[in-house]
Amino acid sequence: MAERACLRCNYVSYDKTCPLCGTETTSDWTGLIVVVDPDESQLAQELNINTPGRYALKVRKK
């Protein structure tokens, strides 16, 4: 099963709906950032990521 990324928050999972925000996901995404501590990560703050996890850098609706 292919990993999918949320169309709204870019969270990466195997689900058809995002476990964080409930939005539809897509298999058409590229780039990956892993956030361990969003409060200490400057990149997470710039990307408005508040929850630890794996996030796609670019997501396209298929």
Brief digest:
The protein is mostly beta strands. It contains one helix and five strands.
List keywords for this structure.
single chain, 62 residues, mainly beta, Rubrerythrin, domain 2, three-stranded antiparallel β-sheet, two-stranded antiparallel ribbon, 1 helix, 5 strands
Can you characterise this structure?
It is a single chain. The chain has 62 residues and is mainly β. The protein has one domain (4-59): Rubrerythrin, domain 2, CATH 2.20.28.90. The chain has 1 helix and 5 strands, in the order ββββαβ. It has one helix at 42-46; strands spanning 4-6, 12-13, 25-26, 29-35, 53-59. The relative contact order is 0.30.
What's the helix count?
1
User: Rough shape?
Assistant: globular
Under CATH, the topology can be stated as Rubrerythrin, domain 2
| Strand residues, percent | 25-35%
Arithmetic mean of pLDDT: 97
As for the number of domains, it is 1
- Tell me the number of strands: 5
CATH uppermost class: Mainly Beta
Q: What is the N-to-C succession of helices and strands?
A: EEEEHE
Query: Cα-atom Rg, whole angstroms?
Result: 11 Å
Strand order of the largest sheet: 2-1-3
What's the CATH architecture?
Answer: Single Sheet
Extract low-pLDDT stretches: none
Largest sheet: 3 strands, antiparallel
Going by helix content, strand content and strand pairing, the class is mainly beta
Could you tell me how far the N terminus lies from the C terminus, measured between alpha carbons in angstroms?
17 Å
What percent of residues adopt helix (DSSP H or I)?
Answer: under 10%
